[in-house]
Amino acid sequence: MRLFYRGAEYETHSPQIEATEGKEIGTYRGAPLKAKSYRVAQRHHDQVQLMYRGVKYTHEI
After folding, report:
1. Structural domain tally of the chain?
2. In whole angstroms, what separates CA 32 from the centre of its chain?
3. Is the pLDDT of residue 43 over 80?
4. Run of H or E including 60
5. Which superkingdom does the taxonomy of this entry point to (predicted)?
6. Distance (Å, rounded) from C-alpha 10 to C-alpha 27?
7. Is residue 3 part of a domain?
């Protein structure tokens, strides 16, 4: 996804989230209610070169 902040453009990568339905845990207003478990895929951490008030530094994202 391309984002903009104060004229600077950057790319962001949202993590993939997997949801799996579990067993039925009850009913809500007559509808069956099932438990879900979520798993977020691990992201690779990158180092980016940033600058604050003219001083360059690297940050791991």
Report:
1. 1
2. 29
3. no
4. strand 55-60
5. Bacteria
6. 45
7. no
